[in-house]
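Chapter summary example.
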Amino acid sequence: MKIYYKLKLIKIIFLKYLLIIFFVCNFIEETVAQTHKKKVFSLLQGRHWSLNVESFINLGEGTDVILIDIAGDTKTINYLRFRALEALSLFPTEDTATFLEETIETSFTPLARRGFEAYHKGFRKTKPQRVKKIALLLLKHPKENIRISAARAIRSIDKEIFKKFLKSEKQLWVRKEAQK
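The structure predicted for these 180 residues follows.
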């Protein structure tokens, strides 16, 4: 009988330590994730901000997920969301592509335009047909700035379609901007 109680006690102590180890590991993982997120946020800050490619790349795995969180968070101030979109162009993953496609389709004009520009920059070499498909749809967008971004992208992919766009675009200023 004594052995049974000793084994039960050992089992309880073992489970207690296992539970403590689980909570400590979980806490450490959350702390590391929060530190990573703070580093990403710090790279998006600054009055005279420009995309620091090397710094973002050096952050390593998971940076794209944090940037997607920031860019998709409607509670985050827009200039940080815009910068996060630009930084996403450095991470041409399937998750990034899916997020940017959704952003292009569903967001307000400035975010959609920046989303497309990041999409074009990040995927024009690896997935040119995918970029072309979205750009062709955006050439008919009601907002001029989105049509301009799409036309600039098309110009680098298919010169004939770009020429057709210039002939069909009704607004002179849009045609001029698309050619810059």
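To summarize the output: The radius of gyration is 24 Å.
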